[in-house]
Every structure is written in C-alpha cells, then in structure tokens.
Design brief:
The protein has 263 residues and is α/β, with parallel strands linked by helices. The chain contains eleven helices and ten strands. It has a single domain, classed as Rossmann fold (3-Layer(aba) Sandwich), CATH 3.40.50.
C-alpha cells in the first residue's frame, strides 16, 4: 500500500456544542482523486481545513507523507504549505482587486525563489495558458474578468508550486451554471496533463463522478459511506446518499458524460 500524500486519522473538530467533524479518517493517495460529498453543514470544509492545517483538531492526527504534523510549528508546516494547495468556492473574494493577474500567480513562485523577473513572467504566462487564459491576461485586473476567468486564475495560482495534492472546495458553486461545466472540464484536463491528485468537495454526487474514482459521504460530521464512485452512485447504501444523487447537473455536463461513455 502506498503511503498517502496527505491523510487524517480519527479526526474530530468541536465548535462549542457542534461536533463539526466526528472521528473521520481520510487518505489522499498519489494520482488519486477523492470526492467528498454531503449536504451543507455536514463538515466538508472543516475537514478540508483540517488537512490544510488551518483548523486545529479536538482529536486525531494529520500526516504529510506519513509524517505526523498534528502538533507541528509554522516552520514545521512549510513543506505542507508548499505541497498542498487549495482552490476555494468564491473566486471574487480570493483575488486582490488592486493587483493584476500576474501577482497572485507569481507570488508562490517568488517565495520558492530561483526565477528572475523575466522567467517568472514567462512561467506565470505558461500557467495562465494551461488554465485556458493566456499571456494576454497577465496585466488585467480582477474587475476585468468574469467569475469563471477569476476561478481559472485561482487554479493557476494553486498549480504554481506543483502541489500534490490539490484541494478543491466547491470550486464551481459560486459560478454561473453555464460556466460550471467548463471549469470541471478544465480540472479533468489538468489532472490528466499533470497527474494531479485531487480532493474535490461538492454537494453534487453526479459532478463528483466526472472527476473522481472514489467518494466519501459525510453527514453531520460523520463518514456514512465511502467507496468507488460508480458503486456508491449505483448502489447507495444510505437514503441520505440517494437524496444527494438527485441533485441537478449543470448544463453542458451531459456532453462530458457522453464523451466519457464514448471512449
Ligand atoms: N469557525 C466555526 N465556528 C463555529 N462553527 C463552525 C465554524 N465552522 C464551521 N462551523 C459549523 O460546523 C459545521 C460544519 O460546517 P462546514 O464544515 O462549513 O460544512 P460544509 O462545508 O459541509 O457545508 C456546521 O454546523 C457549521 O455551522
Ligand atoms: Mg463548505
């Protein structure tokens, strides 16, 4: 069994009376894509923040490459801060309105060092091209971009330090439905091109199927079901999971499903 890139073992998170995460174990393996689904308030984002070490745990452990980082200092978390990147739900609040697109994508590269100004700009342009934008976006401001374009910039920024794995917290939920399929298609292509591993958080099981092989279902902070995504979709053990399955797919998604069936 390969050592997970990033994992949590028996983690719980308590906010006062609320047990937001209740004794959950999760492992992200090299090259794998895991979907994390559950209704709003089921603890998905809290679990993701635990894995990012942005949220302290009440119990349990977090491991990076098999090493326990639960009690690590900020200096001890430097490898995690580079190796694990995240794309959040709302791209509108994720970008500084006073900075052009170049700066947020260049920032993680600047911290890593080793690139002069020209090579840094070329690398940023390359990342923008990779997410379907291109060098002509380098000097644009966020207010000149659509929601989908802003989310592409956030994805480029997350890809810059070559993360393993990439964590995605409902990355299409704040976008127009017409744009959601395009972002999902982008994430599928990026995964193939860069052999990325994903933790993809969504409340839509059908969308998870397009990106992930495995799925974990959370309900009120507890893991209620996990397994291969096809198996969970076709034979959900829980009525709760069946209810999540009835969520509507964004338009354009059926084309992606069709392409999958045809291959
Ligand atoms: N910082 C916080 N303080 C207090 N309660 C929180 C905090 N963050 C999340 N919660 C609570 O924890 C539960 C899980 O929230 P969350 O992880 O955001 O769920 P999801 O992402 O699945 O919608 C909810 O009951 C939420 O209200
Ligand atoms: Mg959430």
């Amino acid at each position: 069994m390969t050592v997970p890139l990033l994992s949590a073992e028996g983690v719980s998170v308590r906010f006062g009376e609320t047990l937001a995460v209740d004794d959950v174990s999760i492992a992200l393996r090299p090259g794998a894509a895991l979907g994390l689904v559950g209704e709003s308030g089921s603890g998905k984002s809290t679990l993701l923040r635990v894995l990012l070490k942005l949220q302290p745990v009440s119990a349990g452990r977090v491991l990076l490459d098999g090493a326990n980082i639960t009690g690590a200092s900020e200096a001890g978390l430097r490898p995690l801060r580079r190796a694990v990147q995240v794309v959040f739900q709302n791209p509108h609040s994720a970008l500084n309105p006073r900075s052009t697109v170049h700066d947020p994508v260049a920032e993680p590269l600047r911290i890593l060092g080793g690139l002069d100004r020209t090579r840094l700009r070329d690398r940023v342009a390359g990342l923008l091209t990779d997410v379907g934008l291109g060098a002509e976006f380098l000097w644009r401001y966020p207010h000149e971009l659509s929601g989908g374009q802003k989310q592409r910039v956030c994805i480029a920024r997350a890809l810059a330090p070559e993360p393993r794995p990439l964590l995605l917290d409902e990355p299409t939920s704040a976008l127009d439905v017409s744009v959601q399929a395009q972002i999902i298609e982008l994430l599928r292509g990026l995964r193939q091109r860069h052999r990325l591993s994903y933790l993809f958080v969504s409340h839509n099981l059908a969308v998870v199927r397009l990106l992930c092989e495995e799925v974990m279902v959370l309900r009120q902070g507890r893991m209620v079901e996990e397994g291969p995504v096809g198996q969970v979709l076709e034979h959900p053990r829980e009525a709760y999971t069946r209810a999540l399955l009835s969520s509507v797919l964004p338009p354009g998604i059926t084309d992606l499903l069709g392409a999958e069936d045809g291959s």
